[in-house]
Amino acid sequence: MRIERDILDKNNDHAAQNRARFMQTGTFALNFVSSPGSGKTSLLVRAIGDLRERFPVAVIEGDQQTSNDAERIRAAGAPAVQINTGKGCHLDAHMVAHGLEKLKLERGGLLFIENVGNLVCPAAFDLGEAHKVVVLSVTEGQDKPLKYPEMFAASDLMLLNKADLLPHVDFDVTGCVANALKINPDLQTLLVSARTGEGLPAFYAWLEGRAARWARANAPKAVAE
Amino acid sequence: MRIERDILDKNNDHAAQNRARFMQTGTFALNFVSSPGSGKTSLLVRAIGDLRERFPVAVIEGDQQTSNDAERIRAAGAPAVQINTGKGCHLDAHMVAHGLEKLKLERGGLLFIENVGNLVCPAAFDLGEAHKVVVLSVTEGQDKPLKYPEMFAASDLMLLNKADLLPHVDFDVTGCVANALKINPDLQTLLVSARTGEGLPAFYAWLEGRAARWARANAPKAVAE
């Protein structure tokens, strides 16, 4: 417990530094968390295509091994840095700080951080993001919020992905949302499909509204001469 | 403008008194707002049936004329007070205070306040509730959040009612949610049907989670002897 506390304290220091950097550069950062295979990368690829005319977008990709995802992101037209965590099951704020050194952040831009696919470890690690967004696909089962409560408690938005598969799977959307709200009554939920694009306009409206408010709250203070 | 300010200031004083009363009696109060015909009363009738074994429920009904709604609520098994606003297009906190005199509020109970059907006037009037819940039915069109922004800005939850009619109407759920999020990026949305009951478990989970947190935050302080 003591070691865990020390690790989290240290992480929080780095997260605060990342957050200060995001304020300086005017960067709205989201931390995407999920199980492996929920479709995070496909969502980001689609969102980059849809949003890049309105926002500069940069991406940090976390995976234990390979740089496949960063390559997919670059092919979609956004600069991306791949972080390999090796044995680690999550990104931490220090790794993200190093990733940021390799990215040019533009004012008013978005930073998507795609965490390692894991519904447990990333929950406790603040990376300096404005919000954690948990992605759950409808092929995974509606009990996941109850089984992995920390992740749903730490997130502000749940994207229920693969909505196009709903006719083919036995997934109770209302039951899943009810389970998530039992854990976190503030959680917002949107039903989306990275494949068909359905539901994504609502996600983009959420993102723009939150980013605009974040920018107002974190505008650089006027310097008194 | 000056008169409007005076009216709102006075209302806010009464709302604060209602809020203090709700803290004293341990009552979690929701203020339901919508256009006429969105199905608020049907929703409340169904919710009373589903929730009354878990919570004592009381209702304040606001209408310009008639006591039809209070009668429907009483038939569903909850005590109800009807307030007729006459020419008024909304309840105000002073009217609610008078209504409360006629209701016995039980500790840990719910108070549903059904406002006058009107998407404009009730937005500005705090009644002392924990949350405004805006009900929009899928027969009304997805542009309503943009046309009546104050109501959607003032609400914490949007219930998209009459989900059972979705196959028969030309209503874009995602577009509606996107419009609402443009106005209020914190707004939570649940798709429900008072007729079939679909989606209501998620609403009850939201309600229980919010009520539990409200109760923790407003627990009577221990009195030092």
Task: Name a few traits of the molecule.
homodimer, 225 residues, alpha/beta, Rossmann fold, 7-stranded parallel beta sheet, 7 strands, 41% helix
Question: How does this structure look, described?
Answer:
The structure is a homodimer of 225-residue chains. By secondary structure, chain A is of the alpha/beta class. Chain A has a single domain (2-216), classed as 3-Layer(aba) Sandwich (Rossmann fold). Chain A has helices at 2-25, 40-51, 68-75, 93-101, 144-147, 149-154, 173-183, 200-217; strands spanning 27-34, 57-63, 80-84, 109-114, 131-137, 157-161, 188-191. Chain A has a 7-stranded parallel β-sheet, sandwiched between helices. In chain A, helix 3 (68-75) links the parallel strand 2 and strand 3. In chain A, helix 1 (2-25) packs parallel to helix 4. The longest helix of chain A is centred in the first third of the chain and has 24 residues, at 2-25. The termini of chain A are far apart. The mean pLDDT of chain A is 95. The A-B interface holds A 174-175, 177-179, 181-182, 184-190, 198-202, 204-206, 208-210, 213 and B 174-175, 177-179, 181-182, 184-190, 198-202, 204-206, 208-210, 213.
